[in-house]
Design brief:
Elements: H1 23-27, H2 32-68, H3 75-98, H4 104-119, H5 148-166, H6 172-197, E1 199-200, E2 208-209, H7 214-237, E3 241-243, E4 247-251, H8 252-275, H9 286-295, H10 297-329, H11 344-367
Antiparallel strand pairs: 1-2, 3-4
Helix pairs in contact: 2-3, 3-4, 3-6, 4-5, 4-6, 5-6, 6-11, 7-8, 7-10, 7-11, 8-10, 9-10, 10-11
Amino acid sequence: MKINDKDFEITDTVEIDPITDDKIGNNRFKLDSVKRNLRTRVFSTLVLLVLLLGFVVSGAVYTSLKTYIETPSEAASYTSIILTIGLLGICNFEMNKTMGFKQWYYQVLLITLSIILFIFPSSEILYDFSFYKAMNLTGATSWFGAWQFPVLLTIYLFITMIIGFADKRINQKNALINVVMTIIIILALKAFSVTSLALSSSNGERDRAMFSFNTIVWIWLMIILSDSFQYLGGMRFGKTKLSPNISPKKTWEGALIGMGVASGTGIVFAMIFQFVTPLKEFQPLREIMQGLGSTSVILEVIMYILLSLVFPIIGLFGDLLFSWVKRQVKIKDYSNLIPGHGGALDRLDSIIFSLFILFIFISCAALI
């Protein structure tokens, strides 16, 4: 059967048409449209990796200098926070516009509120860095209370829902989705900043990284490999649709290949930093894992293996969740910001949801 190249389009993985049998699966890489799309995606991915490197380096520089220099400059931490706020603004703009909050005054109000929520501390333990060190979060004279951040989230919920109720152009369901997804984005980027910048000290020792910037590298590496090999595996071997109603071009074969490669790489990466002594200071989730290791090294290894298996699954769920949101308003991409990928949310959906789960994990761990 002849394939019409002009009508052939791909996004994450290719939708399988049962009428055309397996021949499509064996020839998709030969199509000119596929080759062009793949080249565009590769170029955009390289640019994104450079930007990711800038994010990670700013956090790595800050925590590394804190380890070896008594009073280093705070420029790296402020750079990281400012870059993260910029990314938060882009993501919120895309989500607001998708859910119907298109007017500039809605955008300004909701993005401003989200930045306030991002900056406001959510814990007295995790914010011992940058300007937070001068905010008197701990001690007898602390102004901070654990109830404050949930109250601010509730205020954000009411403001958004009131706008959705007052403006007949905005669907109430979409307003609620906007709140939930925006909170996920905010908490995800909070996890990014806290994990990259949080410090800890004990017995009068100099500050050290609480979690290590390598935590972000570890998780992001797994998500990138999972997404990439889901795409490549689905293109070459995909036959069984994973979720036809949400993401019809994803396949079980691609998903299993991607998650398998990601989990295997994540386990090897974690074990290198676990057992190579000079690198142990930079192991992912350093303080939490070393606490487990002081009880049992086997427990520490098991935790790394479990997290390496779970995070690619979380990333896939995040991808499907953000795709489901697009299906609610019948759009293909959140924006055209990134050639070959769509918007920032189209590219970061998996990592955003993974960091959201990371935020819950480190917040719970900090309370123990």
